[in-house]
Structure formats: structure tokens, C-alpha cells
Amino acid sequence: MPVRSQIEGSQAVARAVARCRPQVVAAYPISPQTHIVESLADLVRTGELDPCEYLMVESELGAMSACIGSSAMGSRTYTATASQGLLFMAEALFNASGLGLPIVMTVANRAIGAPINIWNDHSDSMSMRDSGWVQLFASSNQEAVDLHVQAFRLAERLSLPVMVCMDGFVLTHAVEQVDVPEQDEVDAFLPPFTPRQQLDPAQPVSIGAMVGPEAFTEVKYLMHARQMQALDEIPRIAADFEAAFGRPAGGLVRPYRTDDAETVVVALGSQVGTIEVVVDQLRDEGHPVGLLDVTCFRPWPRDEVRRALAGAANVVVLEKAFAVGAGGIVGQNTRLALAGTPTVVHDVVAGLGGRPVTAAAVRGLLDDVLAGRVDPHRLHFLGLRTDLVDGQLRRDAASVPGPHAESMLREAGVIGSGSH
Amino acid sequence: MTVEPKLYQVDTFAVGNRLLDPAQRSEQARADRSNAITSGHRACQGCGEVLGARYVLDAAMRATGGNMVAANATGCLEVFSTPYPETSWQLPWLHSLFGNAPAVASGMAAALRAQGRSDTRVVAQAGDGGTVDIGFGCLSGMFERNDDVLFVCYDNEGYMNTGVQRSGATPPAARTANTKALGPEPGNAFGQGKFVPLIAMAHEIPYVATATVADLRDLEAKVETAMGMSGARYLHVLVPCPLGWGSASEDTIKVARLARETGIFPVFEAERGRITAVSKIRRWQPVEEYLRIQRRYAHLFGEPRRDDIVARIQAQADHNIDRFGLLDDDPGYEQDQE
Prior knowledge:
The structure holds 2 protein chains of 2 kinds. Chain A is α/β, with parallel strands linked by helices. Chain A has 3 domains: 3-245, Rossmann fold (3-Layer(aba) Sandwich), CATH 3.40.50.970; 253-381, Rossmann fold (3-Layer(aba) Sandwich); 385-420, no CATH class. Chain A contains 15 helices and 16 strands. Chain A has helices at residues 9-19, 34-45, 60-72, 83-88, 90-98, 123-127, 141-158, 183-189, 216-245, 271-284, 302-309, 329-337, 359-370, 386-397, 404-412, and strands spanning 3-8, 24-27, 53-56, 77-81, 104-109, 134-137, 162-167, 175-180, 206-207, 253-256, 263-267, 289-294, 296-298, 314-319, 344-349, 380-381. In chain A, the strands form 3 sheets. Chain A has a 7-stranded mixed β-sheet with strand order 3-2-4-5-7-6-13, sandwiched between helices. A 6-stranded mixed β-sheet of chain A has the order 10-12-11-14-15-16, sandwiched between helices. Chain A is globular, with a radius of gyration of 22 Å. By secondary structure, chain B is of the alpha/beta class. Chain B has a single domain (43-337), classed as Rossmann fold (3-Layer(aba) Sandwich). Helix content of chain B is 34%, strand content 13%. Chain B has an 8-stranded mixed β-sheet, with helices on both faces. In chain B, helix 1 packs parallel to helix 7. The longest helix of chain B is centred in the C-terminal third of the chain and has 18 residues, at 307-324. The chains are: A alpha/beta, B alpha/beta. The interface between A and B is large, with 45 and 45 residues. Strand 9 (206-207) of chain A pairs parallel with strand 2 of chain B, so a sheet runs across the interface. Chain B: Keywords: Oxidoreductase, Pyruvate. Chain B: This is Pyruvate ferredoxin oxidoreductase.
């Protein structure tokens, strides 16, 4: 029987990962990922996770590079990072996916500087959305645990790297009741790693050859084709998981009260719990509102998103990242899914740099959408402190130099004497 | 290298393989050598790097009974050996990125430990750019963790694959594509650059050695020594680049020999941070003999001659001779440390 205990999200993930029996863990510390890898280091040290080599590398580039070497050598391989660390890995991320190495990585989602900020948003994972990694977003610590178990099976089945994204601090540091699967359950669900290709003195192969214009397109086409196979594999694995563990987890998307919904919120990660509460309130008040929780962001489940949103008049994409100078990221993908339909898509940015996405704020947003007060042609920032930005924009217009962040903090009275 | 030849050829330091005990013969003289990098690759004529790699890998394959894997950084060696769909490698070989070969190798070694396959050994190789510059953080990490990897740097003193730009291993006054022979201080600046073997020694890893492709049996012997040890080991091989150095293709060995005979490039071995052996200069030569046959130094011998710069390079060679004890009558580096 699984043990239900009050446990920190990071500890729960670390234990679940350990029960997936990774043979190599290579990691570099960065908040808010640290508790996961510290816990794994403990499990290796005590022999609870054995055999496993824990490499304390000199950087995130080193971490992902060691993972590449280990995975190519045929070992089940895991790492975790966040934020700046994910960016420092960027070159190796593309390399791992290009080489088709089934590495599993937790990203404890955190903002990217400047300005430096350790709190949660999705800018880090979103910046690497085109790196060729499968990206799964956990809405709760239970789902984070369950997605890791599924991630190893998915990665090794398709020979693709998988990123499990969980909100930094909001999930990683939250203590709550989580079922951590038992060793025998995980062993029954996750077969031992059989690499598609590995470095073997008995059968020498060259991995990572240079490819020119004559075949590069074809190699990339095959990468795309393989990642699209995940759209079939992920629901199968989720169904197997539910059969084995008795609870739903994973899949591509999870519609919540979307039947007959005229307005549907699209969201990823831990904020979906808050949004569910607001959807319930509005439903109780007679408003046909629903939620689409996107668990799999890469590959993009276009057909499933389209099906779930079909019939909605309004879609509100609430996302914790955006493309500076362009707009919503999940929003752009949602528009792609809804091409040719009359559905109106609203791009709303929320929860940047750890700003809480509260039920009250979401309720206010949906009230505005329902009342037609949100212009769908503009990027909307939930809870934006217009007093701060308007002041800075005025100063910019008056050609007053200086860094925005510092000027705004002065304006807000956080730093300085306020005299300027 | 402890070779007791029966007979030298007259007036040379060469000795024919047939005069040696079979155990002391070059790996390249064996019919059953592994040819780890085999024919058909696209290295330039006279390439020092591919010559060095051939000797290093075949010696390592001999030492491990063929039970080894290789990680390779981006660079000439990777590009000329694996144009899709061909490969010259006859051992398990992985190219990942330019700056991460040491960390990839660390991961391979960790995987082998976890799989209980410590009999399979890991060799990583890179040029000087991938070693002393962009891969240096990963290299230092691999050293300090004492991961079971032999890392080989083939030092041709610049970014040759991208068109001969300066690296942290480019010597002073050398002309490269971004340190041209222009202005009052032509070529690469003095007072910059680094000699990574000494930095490797500062990590107190089990073994550090330098070598050149002028002494290929010495190179093989150092590989054999390295593969007889475990932990992090570093081999820095000077490999002339006819393209980048502007030397004649047939002069690769000669240029490498002059680098050693002038003291420009010290050849030594070290264990746990202490120098244990130094290859003495056999016939000392002034640095001009080394510089004149490379067009990257042509600006020193034109009109006007830059004897002042040649003198500064000579002073560096003299410093090496003194520091490492490269001449017979020199007490040597070891004594300096006592």
C-alpha cells in the first residue's frame, strides 16, 4: 500500500525519482531545485538508492553534459535545475534532444533575471520550449510525483529527453499529503532501461557526427516525427498509470467543466487549482465557465486543445511567462489550435516572479472578461501596478535615464529616500 | 620512457623498431594495431593533430585491450573525422559540444561505475580551444573530482577549424586571423595566455604529461603510463598545424622537434602535482630556428626585422629551460622544489 504522508514536494519528487532507479544523477545547486537533489544525494549516501552515482558538477552545463555522457553509455540518468541554470544548460539541452537521449529532468520553475528573482514563474521552461524536450507541467505535488514515474517510461520508450516542470516554491517547498509510489509498484510500471543506441566497445558506433545540408532537414524532420509520437504515447502511459496506481495523472490536457462552457481558461502548473475554485464559484452562480489544464506543452497537443475548446466563445489563456515584444506564448499556441474558429483568445500574463495568482484576482479577471471589459487584441497583465509603470513611462518619455527596476522601486518607496 | 635500444642509427637519435625488443616497439609498428582513427578522414596534409590522435588512441586501445570509449569536443578532429554518413572512428565515440567534453567523459565514467563496468575506460579529447578556453570549467571540475578519465589536449595553439583565430594557448607574436601582423606590436600579445599542464598539476591529479608529435614513441609511452593509472589524467600534446602556423606540410615533425629543442615547449611528466621526469633538450637551438619556418612569425623577419620581439621569445624559451631544467647541466625543476 502506498504511504500517504505529509511531505515536502521536493522530498516527494526525490523519493519518486529514486524509486525509478536512476543510475546516474548529475546536478548543480540552484534555488528552488536544491531540496530535490540534496535529498537524492542523501539517498545515494545511505545506500537507499544503489547502484547510483551522484556527480557534483561545476555548473549546469556540466550537469547536462555529464547526463549526455551517462545516457549515451546506457545508464538511466536524471538531473534537476531551474531558471538561470536551465539557460546555462541551453546548448546541451538541444544536444541531448538531437542525440535522442532519454534523460529526465525536473525544472523547479523560476523567473529569469535581470532583475534577478528567485520566485516562481514559467519563463525558464518556456524559453526552452523549442529545445526538442518533451515538457510536462505538474499542477500539484501529487501530479509532480506521478509525472516523474511516467516521464522515465515515456523518455525511454521514445528515446527522447523529458522535462517535468513544477512550480518553484509553490510546489517544491509546499508540504502536503502525497502518495509516493512504493518501490515494487514503480518496478512493475517502469521496465529496466534498454537504450536504443549506446557506446559499447563490443559494437563501436560514432554518435554525434556532423551532418550537412544534404541530410540535416531529414534529421530534424525525424526529431519532430518522434516527438509527435509522444502525443500518442502520453495518453497510453497515463492510462496504464491509472490502472496500476488507481489515480489519474498525466495525459495531454485535462478539461475541467468545459462541457457547454462559453468561457474557458487555459493554464499550466499549480495555478490550475486556484482557477478550479473560481470556475466552481462562477458555475454555482450560473456562468458557463470551464478550465483546460495543459499538462503536456511540448509536443503541443493541438487537436486535443482544439477539441476541448471547441464551442467556447471566449478563451482566456492565463500564463506565467510571455514573449517580450510579441505577447503570450501559450496564447500563440492556443490560437494555432483554434485557427479557423470564431473563438476569441485573450492573452493574460500572471504570476511573474512569484506574484501570487489569487482566486480573487482570477475572479476579477473572469468578471471583466464576462462583462466584455478585456480587449482581446491587447496583452493583459493581471494585477499590474499601473501606478509604477505609468510613472516610469512618463519619466522615459521625459528622457530621464536609469534602470527601470531601480527607478520603480524608488517610486514605490522600497529603496532610497524617495526624493527624485 | 625507459627504452634501452641496442643500436642508434649513426648521427641521429632515431632507432629502428626492428632493433627494439618487441615489447618496446611502437604500437604503430604492430600489424594488429587498432587503427582507432582509420583512413579516409579529411585532415589537412601534414596535420599534427590527427597524427597525435592516431598514436594516442591506438596506444590507449592497446593498454585497455580495446575496452574503451571516447568523448570528443567539437573542432577539427571531430569535423574531419565524421562527415555524415562516414566515420573514421573504430572505437565507441561520442561528440557532444565544443565546451563540454570533460563533463561528457565524467558522465560516461559515472555510468560505467554505476554499471559495475570499471574495466571499460574513458578517454576524452579536444583541441586547445576546447580545453584551455571554452571547456576549461568542465575540465577543472573533472580534475577536482578525480573522475576516471584520460583527457588529451591536442594543442595547435589556436582556433584552426574556424579559420585560425587566437586561443588562450596561442603564443605571443604569432599571427592569427584576429591577431594580425598589424601595428607596432604585431601578432598575439605578450603577457597573456596560459599553460594548462601547470594548472592541471595544481589540481594534484594522478598524472599530467606533455608531449609532441616529434617523439611519438614517448607519446605512446605516456599514454600507456596514463592508462595504467586511475583517476583524472591529463596529456597535453603539441601538434603543429601547417594551415594555421604557415609551416610546410612535410615539416610538421621538424617544427614539433624544434619546439622542444628550443625550450619553447617543455616536455615533462608529473604525478600528484610534482614533476617526475623531464625530456632534456638534445641539441639546443635558438628560437629563431623554430620561428623562421612558420609564416605566422614572418613579420619578425621582414623589413624591418623585429629582433626585439625575437629576443623576447628567446627569453621565454630560456625561462622554460631554467624553470623545467631542460638542459643537461641544469639542476632542473624538481631540485627547485626542494
